[in-house]
């Protein structure tokens, strides 16, 4: 599957989804039952079952070695035309003469490919956002009528360099095509959706992230208590006790999310960031089995922690997701120490200066272990089983 089909498939899936829901509502509205609540519940159940069946068929479709398009609707990666004719009128002016009349451009073995992206506008309607097209051909012939004396010279020049000539007029041709294609796509989407408006203020993913924040708090990870730490070296002993970290659940989406499909693999690139993270702990240092002991408190603040990652998932959901890239960014670190007397100032100076100077090196050192740990967790996720368990028709 070529790269050119990635957004065509996504748009097609969206249109099929909306069309199925609209058709289902039309069919269900003709059914007469005594209770409107019963009708609503019945329609909802039937809609969910049909969509579940469609989703499961889509999953099974991509089990094939070389799946083409979608179940019941094969989609090719581009359009192949044996011949395409471009007709119009021209005007040619020179010092000695002026000619005008019709012209014909014949393109043979034409291949057209394009990408189209959709977006929810402010009014809640889905419309075409960007369209990119490209046209390639094997041979071109040009015929200008009424050229007179210049006919053979002019047409010989054009036919000797067809690619150069076509590249000169291609932007004009495509600009007109973009307008017409956008109108057609927008018109079909509006008819299929029946004027349904989609939320443009809070995306479904942002709502999912908000639910994830609640889940993190409900599982007891914010605030999060770290296990007590005890380390002994010879006569020295150090303890870190009652350590709490707050702010872990303050993560949110940063920037746009990029989703693409290439070679039967879906890739998602997104960045997650946190707000300020706070931490506090009690420490104790002793020497000589408790002969000399100092204890105190330490508080630290991290401005933010951002993670940019790319995850790939094969459309054959039997395969596990893969994390391809992970980039961590750590904000400024501030530490306040109490209990060590004069050493508090030395400790604060070292901790506040060194980590901020070395935080990029620290993050680079942490990226590979974190990436490995995340991949180990992903290897345990059976995406296909999760989807089938949740969306199997009743």
From TrEMBL:
The keyword Oxidoreductase does not apply. Keywords: Signal. Residues 1-23 form the signal peptide. Gene3D superfamilies: 3.15.10.50, Bactericidal permeability-increasing protein, domain 1. The keyword Signal applies. Pfam families: Grp7_allergen (PF16984). InterPro entries: Mite_allergen_7_sf, Mite_allergen_group-7. This is Uncharacterized protein. It comes from Pseudolycoriella hygida.
């Amino acid at each position: 599957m070529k790269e050119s089909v990635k957004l065509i498939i996504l748009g097609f899936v969206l249109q099929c989804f909306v069309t199925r829901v609209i058709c289902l509502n039309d069919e269900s509205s003709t059914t007469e039952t005594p209770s409107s609540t019963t009708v609503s519940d019945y329609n909802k159940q039937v809609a969910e079952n049909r969509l579940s069946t469609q989703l499961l068929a889509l999953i099974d479709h991509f089990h094939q070695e070389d799946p083409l398009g979608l179940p019941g609707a094969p989609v090719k990666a581009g359009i192949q035309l044996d011949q395409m004719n471009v007709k119009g009128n021209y005007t040619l002016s020179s010092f000695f003469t002026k000619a005008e009349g019709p012209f014909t451009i014949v393109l043979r073995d034409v291949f057209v490919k394009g990408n189209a992206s959709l977006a929810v506008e402010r009014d809640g309607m889905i419309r075409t956002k960007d369209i990119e097209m490209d046209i390639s051909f094997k041979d071109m012939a040009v015929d200008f009528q009424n050229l007179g004396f210049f006919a053979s010279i002019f047409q010989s020049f054009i036919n000797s360099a067809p690619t150069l000539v076509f590249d000169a007029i291609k932007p004009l041709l495509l600009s007109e095509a973009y307008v017409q294609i956008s109108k057609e796509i927008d018109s079909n989407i509006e008819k299929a959706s029946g004027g349904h408006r989609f939320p443009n203020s809070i995306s479904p993913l942002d709502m999912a992230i908000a639910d994830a924040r609640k889940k993190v708090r409900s599982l007891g990870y914010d605030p999060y208590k770290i296990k007590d730490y005890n380390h002994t070296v010879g006569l020295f002993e150090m303890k870190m006790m009652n350590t709490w970290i707050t702010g872990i659940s303050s993560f949110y989406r940063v920037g746009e999310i990029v989703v693409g499909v290439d070679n039967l693999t879906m890739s998602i690139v997104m960045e997650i960031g946190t707000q300020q993270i706070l931490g506090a702990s009690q420490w104790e240092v002793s020497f000589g089995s408790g002969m000399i002991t100092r204890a105190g408190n330490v508080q630290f603040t991290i401005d933010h922690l951002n993670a940019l990652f790319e995850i790939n998932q094969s459309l054959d959901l039997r395969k596990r997701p893969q994390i391809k890239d992970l980039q961590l960014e750590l904000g400024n670190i501030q530490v306040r120490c109490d209990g060590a007397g004069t050493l508090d100032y030395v400790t604060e100076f070292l901790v506040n200066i060194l980590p901020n100077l070395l935080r990029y090196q620290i993050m680079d050192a942490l990226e590979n272990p974190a990436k490995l740990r995340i991949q180990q967790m992903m290897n345990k996720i059976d995406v296909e089983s999760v989807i089938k368990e949740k969306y199997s028709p009743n």
